[in-house]
Write a structure and sequence with these properties.
This protein is α/β, with parallel strands linked by helices and about 575 residues long. It is about 55% helix and about 10% strand. It has 22 helices and 12 strands. A hairpin with a 2-residue loop joins strand 2 and strand 3.
């Protein structure tokens, strides 16, 4: 039973309004003593030809007390509802314990496919912290949509095409050592790639050689293809180690190269629509009507660029998956590119262009160091993960040295801390990365939320098997009711996170739930309470643990059973 929906039905029957509209208008009062739901009567004034205050008063007198509503009061132009606490608590906790990890899920996405493109690192280049942000954010967004019943497809659009591969082939043939490369593929490939650029500054003919090798690759010459595949496989093998650590699997690793033979069709479509214009020998699409710079489709030498490949990929994906939404989880720095690319699709007559969405991820800034440019140190994802786990293990060794499976716990907590930090705020804000803030067991942090979960599990473990069903009428305190109200809003929270494409909505939710449970735990006995109260509070604790692990799971955070 959805108490908010039931209240909306009561409003709609008395005010001659559709239930859906009543649901949309309902609010949560700013103070608990003002009720659990509030309905503004201002929109009814014209229809009923009365003041909102009078309407609220009249409706309050007509609302009958039952298992849903304890009372209704007029407060100015608002009709405030106080729900039946015992009934709400019983229904909510019973539903959570019955549904388990399915709690908060729905069938709203049934029959609809959502594509989520995320991670997308470049072949033969280290996986840096920016890719890690995209990976963590995209993984959370996919899980959120999946929880709401959508058929989700995870796409890793690898950067595996372009002139840099001609340079890499040239570098490999000159300085590549298979034995060394096999031991540390990405770093070694990067070394010889950097060396190529250094040598090319002294000898510009190397660039001509690189262009020739890329031409061999485009023409399907066997040696060039074999080397390209070698670089791709070695890189992917390394990337997958990180994906395994974060418990991420992709449905497709189809990269830019896959669309190389599909780009001529894109050019033809744009020509047929008379959208291509010449500009300094290049072919562009004018986007002045969108107040955007032109989108380059073909360079002056006839070569395509990534915008052309993105157009080809979008068309292919629509034909293949017939998606409801196609989400691109890529850094905010690429916002202009996606505006241009989506606008070109729209001009070309593809109505589904409106279903393509760029979800711009945040930039990472370090509290104690700057994120360097290409000439300085790049922050690599593996370094961050390794250091987080190492620092977490140090904390565990100092606080709980006898903990079983402490390496496994350190990994879950350390990686959970990274995920929480990246998803802590909305994506319009930069991520400020600080080890001290990230790994603290106090305040708003991943370890603190995980500790709240572990605390609840520890209480349940100490309680052992409890005989008898819980009588929820024993949950009488304001703290207990506030927790259950939060538990009851979980489904709405997941829906809001999907609607806004913002995982931080769930991060905020689990943080607030953990805070509410900690307040309750510190103020009310559980194991030492009277038997009926103890059983009811243990059921509440179990429900909190269930929703915490589900919410954290939607963010990609794994919960340890001890800390």
């Amino acid at each position: 039973m959805d108490f908010k929906l039931e209240v909306a039905k009561k409003i709609s029957s008395l005010a001659d309004m559709e239930t859906e509209k009543a649901m949309e208008l309902m609010e949560i009062p700013p103070q608990p003593n003002m009720g659990d739901y509030a309905f503004p009567c201002f929109q009814l004034a014209k229809v009923m030809r009365k003041s909102p205050n009078m309407i609220a008063k009249d409706l309050a007198e007509k609302i009958e007390r039952d298992d849903i509503v304890e009372k209704a009061e007029a407060a100015g132009g608002y009709l405030n509802f106080f729900i039946n606490k015992t009934g709400f608590i019983k229904h909510t906790i019973s539903q959570i314990l019955d549904q388990g990890s399915k709690y908060g899920s729905s069938k709203e996405g049934e029959g609809k496919t959502v594509l989520v493109e995320f991670s997308s690192p470049n072949i033969a280049k280290p996986f840096h912290i920016g890719h890690l942000v995209n990976t963590i954010t995209g993984n959370a967004i996919e899980k959120i949509f999946k929880h709401l019943g959508y058929n989700t497809i995870k796409l890793n659009h690898l950067g595996d095409y372009g002139t840099q591969f001609g340079k890499l082939i040239s570098a490999y043939k000159r300085w590549g050592n298979d034995e060394i490369i096999e031991k540390d593929p990405i770093n070694e490939l990067l070394k010889i790639y950097v060396k190529f650029h250094e040598e090319a500054e002294k000898d510009p003919t190397l660039d001509d050689e690189a262009r020739l090798y890329f031409k061999h690759l485009e023409d399907g010459e066997s040696e060039a293809i074999a080397l390209w595949q070698k670089f791709r496989e070695l890189s992917l093998k390394e990337f997958k180690k990180l994906y395994v650590d974060f418990n991420i699997e992709f449905d497709s690793y189809t990269g830019e190269s896959f669309y190389s033979d599909k780009m001529p069709e894109v050019v033809e479509i744009l020509k047929d629509k008379k959208l291509l214009k010449e500009s300094s020998g290049a072919q562009i699409v004018d986007l002045e009507q969108f107040n955007l710079p032109p989108c380059l489709i073909l360079k002056s030498d006839g070569a395509t660029i990534y915008a052309t490949r993105d157009l080809a990929a979008a068309i292919y994906r629509k034909r293949t998956y017939d998606f409801y939404k196609s989400l691109y989880v890529v850094g905010n720095t690429q916002a202009l590119h996606f505006k241009q690319f989506f606008s070109v699709l729209e001009l070309a007559g593809f109505e589904w262009a409106k279903d393509c969405v760029h979800i711009g991820t945040s930039l990472v800034k370090f509290a104690d160091r700057k994120l360097a440019s290409r000439k300085g140190d790049v922050i690599y994802a593996k370094e961050v993960v390794d250091e987080a786990v190492e620092k977490t293990l140090e904390i565990i060794n100092s606080k709980n040295p006898n903990l079983e499976n402490k390496e496994e716990v350190a990994k879950k907590v350390g990686m959970g801390a990274i995920i929480y930090t990246f998803l802590k705020n909305n994506m319009g804000r930069d991520i400020v990365f600080s080890w001290e803030d990230m790994l603290t067991f106090e305040g708003e942090s991943g370890p603190n939320v995980l500790y709240s979960y572990v605390r609840g599990k520890s209480i349940l473990k100490k309680a052992g098997n409890i005989s008898g069903n819980a009588d929820f009428s024993y949950l009488k305190t304001e703290d207990e009711f506030n927790i259950v109200k939060q538990l009851g809003s979980f489904k709405e929270t997941v829906e809001q996170a999907a609607e806004r494409y913002e995982p931080f909505v769930i991060t905020r939710y689990v943080t607030d739930l953990a805070k509410a449970y900690n307040k309750f735990y510190n103020s009310h006995p559980i194991l030492s309470a009277e038997e009926e109260v103890k059983i009811a509070r243990l059921a509440l604790t179990k429900a909190v643990c269930n929703v915490l692990t589900t919410g954290l799971g939607l963010l990609g955070i794994q919960t340890p059973e001890s800390m």
